[in-house]
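Hi Y.,

Following your request, here is the sequence exactly as I used it, all 203 residues.
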Amino acid sequence: MLSRLKSLMFGAPFDAGTYTAPMSAGAPVTEIATFASGCFWGTQHIFLKHFPPTPAPGKGIVRTTVGYTGGNPLVKNPDYKSVCSGATDHAEAVRIEFDPQVIGYAELVEFFYRSHDPTTLNRQGADTGTQYRSAVFTNSEEQMEIAQRVTKEVQAKHFTPKKRTIRTEIVPAGQWWDAEAYHQLYLFKNPGGYQCATHRLWW
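Below is the corresponding structure, written out as tokens. Let me know if you'd prefer a different format.
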């Protein structure tokens, strides 16, 4: 009875496992995709909304983590405050572990472009600064080739007709730093929390 009253008063307990695919003895060999598209709360949220890991078998994403990358290599363990100052040059980013047997890297790159505005430099909506830049951090030569190809295709199909140019940087991935725990799955824990208006499907 007490647990039911708590549920009615405070809602169901947050279950982070809902947003991670369960691992098994026959777990797939996964790959990593790393994207930056403004505030990482919204980037993580829109990817998981459209490629939920559960219920099994999910839609290809196994797990996600928000964090910082692409900054000054001399800066170790950057935190949210230092990254937001712009002093470290790190981007707010999402690290996506995915099953390539279910979803290809090219599809993830195309979705990345669909789900933010890649034509603004160091800005998404009202969020400005290098930490909010649009970037694809590639984890292999193959990913670099795919990202460059998909970018050209998206530019020709969706932005050239509008006389707009993609400003996304495509660079090899460097050191990754997990963001603080309260940032992980933030918009699932706080459904009414801030979300940049550019994190929506544009086509």
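The domain at 28-189 is CATH 3.30.1060.10 (Peptide Methionine Sulfoxide Reductase; Chain A).

Thanks again,
Q.
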